[in-house]
Design a protein that fits this description.
Layout lengths: L2 H8 L1 E2 L9 E5 L3 H13 L3 E5 L2 H10 L4 E4 L8 H11 L5 E5 L4 H9 L4 E4 L4 H14 L8 E4 L2 E4 L4 E4 L2 E4 L2 H12 L7 H9 L9 H13 L5 E4 L3 E4 L3
Parallel strand pairs: 2-3, 2-4, 4-5, 5-6
Antiparallel strand pairs: 1-7, 7-8, 8-9, 9-10, 11-12
């Protein structure tokens, strides 16, 4: 197959420009926990704002188009359940994940009754919180063909952060999603490791980093044996016909 026929066969369909990172608001009055949550979510590619009181949290949540809120209950000024009630009244489609030291059933039921999307008792594992936030983002994502890009038989759902190849559907982490989206946007051409580090991770060239290689391995594993990501020795990666 010639290079020209290969590119024609690939039939990349760019339906929409790359989406901005998902924005998360964390409302938590304990500085150590707030910093921990912000760093953990940012490491996964989310844009994070942190607020340490109920009134400020409610004001911030209503002032900006966040994709999700992580909400503590024991807050100064206005308690978390009151914040939740006001948020649900004014932005009922905004997913709110409660994280609280209050783990009793009545409080949980009250939280869900006031509109909470999920409830996680402290202490918790950061990975579990991130997974629960992603679930809520997928559930509340708009369904539209405008949220899809394709390269051959590979489909990437921009809203749900899911890749489809044949009958396989793979949920992607934010970095996996961004890397695959970048490769689809440049399908058929070689994308250097340095460019991926810069545009997906925001890093300058670091010869000691292997984050790109690790992320590509994870993507290939999730996409299965037919994963169309080719390694071009000493050059970078290329999305081939799928």
């Amino acid at each position: 197959m010639t290079k020209l026929s290969f590119l024609c066969h690939l039939q990349v369909i760019r339906v929409r420009v790359a989406p901005a990172a998902m924005q998360i608001l964390v409302i938590e009055d304990e500085p150590r926990i707030l910093d921990f949550l912000a760093r953990g979510l940012e490491a996964e590619g989310f844009l994070v704002d942190g607020v340490d009181s109920g009134p400020a949290g409610l004001k911030q949540a209503l002032a900006q188009a966040y994709d999700a809120v992580v909400l503590d209950l024991l807050l100064p000024g206005v308690d978390g359940l009151s914040v939740l009630r006001a948020l649900h009244q004014q932005r009922p489609d905004l997913p709110v994940v409660i994280v609280s030291a209050r783990s009793d059933l009545p409080t949980k039921l009250r939280g869900f009754g006031l509109g909470a999307s999920d409830y996680l008792a402290k202490p918790f594992a950061l990975d579990e919180l991130i997974a629960r936030v992603r679930v809520q983002l997928r559930r509340h994502a708009p369904r539209s063909e405008e949220n899809v890009v394709r390269a051959g038989s590979l489909t990437l759902d921009l809203a749900r952060r899911q890749a489809r190849l044949g009958g396989l559907v793979a949920d992607l982490s934010d970095r996996e999603f961004r890397l695959l989206h970048h490769l689809i946007e440049h399908a058929g051409t070689i994308v250097s490791r340095e460019r991926l580090l810069s545009e997906v991770w925001g890093y300058h060239f670091d010869p000691g980093s292997n984050v790109v290689e690790v992320c590509v391995r994870r993507l290939r594993k999730k996409l299965g044996a037919e994963a169309p990501i080719e390694t071009v020795r000493h050059a970078g990666y290329r999305l081939t016909a799928a």
